[in-house]
Write the structure tokens for this entry.
Amino acid sequence: QVQLVESGGGSVQPGGSLRLSCAASGRTFSYTMAWFRQPPGQEREFVAAIDWSGDTTYYADSVKGRFTISRDKSRDNNKGTLYLQMNSLQQEDTAVFYCAATPDWFLADSPNWYSASHYNYWGQGTQVTVSS
């Protein structure tokens, strides 16, 4: 049974940084994982994704060069942590951020990387507020 628990959200001034973590349990070692976000009053949107090895990553254009996704795999195949380092935060980054995972592997440049409907497991979300 896969469980995802996000942490690290909070309030920060424009230009600041935050690091989100997602503690994953339940044999997610080989899973594709991603971050999505939902700004106030808007639809959920893709932020970043990473393959099982950590070697392949994808980013939304709005966060390229500012956000970095990475993963740290525990020696215990039943546990691992997904990260999102967010730098140069802007007011437009204000949103609830969600961790997501799927056992599926996607082909390079497949649109599935960016699609919330292709991820099976979700965390509860963590609030990020960027405000002066």
Summary: The two ends are 41 Å apart (CA to CA). The first strand starts at residue 3 and ends at 7. The mean pLDDT is 94. The CA atoms of residues 4 and 97 lie 12 Å apart.
